[in-house]
Structure formats: structure tokens, C-alpha cells
Amino acid sequence: MVSATAEHLYHPYRFSVDEYLRMGEAGILTEDDRVELIDGEIIDMPPIGIPHTGAVKRIANLFGRQLGDRVVLSVQDPIRIGDFSLPQPDIALLHPRDDFYASAYPEPADILLLVEVAESSVRYDREKKLPLYAAAGIMEVWLVDIPARKLTRYSEPSADGYRSVGEPDDLGKVTARALPNSPIDLDGLFG
User: Any idea where the Putative restriction endonuclease domain is (predicted)?
Assistant: First the structure.
């Protein structure tokens, strides 16, 4: 049995975003490492499968064609959430900015919509990343579950998660809340 005093001596170290970025600058982490910083923990991500890459490319292509310069389309790039998280959502639609976010990572206020595509990471995305996004106030997230062949929309963020969760009735007309006049046709998403 561990004494109460010893329990206070041992606790996991949480890396800050700045420390995490310095690991990259020092070559400890490289571009080839599939990792994300989530709540101060460096998370090793599974390899990306072909169905996942196809879905990300398809969605990014549709967003690019249908939304044009009304958004900045970010594909598998980091977003900054506070001092301890630098996740890399599969797709982020961002408010347009003249510098295209060259001066700083996008933060929750910059995000119109996040899309996470899950082939083997459905549970991780649902239980770890979505609560992080909700607590940060990210207005809407779409979770594309490839094995289940479904898209789930999460909106109305709170500290306890998203209050509104549902599947669209028609994949041919999926509309992000931040872009109400821009329905996206995702009919062929699952082949």
C-alpha cells in the first residue's frame, strides 16, 4: 500500500504545447512520428489506413470545391487548444485570414467545423478528442465512422460534452451550423 505522502510524490508529467514543439525542434519528435498532444500527454496514433485517407481526401475535395474562399481548409494540421493540447483533426474549416494562419496555430475561436474520420480510432475520438473539443467551445464536430458507415454530428458544446448529437437525414445535404447557406453533398462518402 502506498502512503498518502508517497502518492503526492508520483504523478504523470504533463507536457505543454511549447515543450512539445521544442521536442520537434530538437529532433526528438519528427514529422514521421504519428503523435498528438492531448491534455499534456503525447499520444501515439495508429497508422492511417486506405479507407481513412480516401474519406479525408473526398471530404476535403468537396469542401474545397463547394466552399471555395469562404473558409480556410486545413487538412491534418494542428490546432491549439490551451496550453496542453495540440491535436491534429483530419479536417478543419477555419475563418478566412489573410495570413492563412502562418503566424499562429488556429484556436477554438477560429474554427467553423472540425471533421474527424475514424477507421480504427472511433472510441478514442469519441471518448478523448470530442470532450476536449466540447470543453474548448468548438461549435461543431462531425465524426465519420468508416466501419459503421455513418456520420454523427456534434454541436452545442459544454464543459460536459456536446449537448446535441445526431445523424443527418440526408448525406446529400449536410450543412455545418456555421455555414447555413452551404449544404455539402456527401452522398458518395461511403462508396
Answer: 18-167
Q: Cβ of 123: how many Cβ atoms within 10 Å?
A: 9
Distance between CA atoms of residues 186 and 174, nearest Å: 7
- Check: CB of residue 44 under 8 Å from CB of residue 124: no
CATH number at residue 80: 3.90.1570.10
Per-residue pLDDT of the chain (191 residues; tens, 9 = 90+): 555 555 667 778 899 999 999 999 999 999 889 999 999 999 998 888 999 999 999 999 999 999 999 999 999 999 999 999 999 999 999 999 999 999 999 999 999 999 999 998 899 999 999 999 999 999 999 999 999 999 999 999 999 999 999 999 889 899 999 999 999 989 888 87
Cα separations (Å) of 63 from 7, 57, 66, 94, 183? Answer: 50, 10, 5, 12, 10
**Residue 186 covered by a domain:** no
Q: How many angstroms separate the CA atoms of 40 and 136, rounded?
A: 15
What predicted TM-score, i.e. pTM, was given to this entire model? 0.91
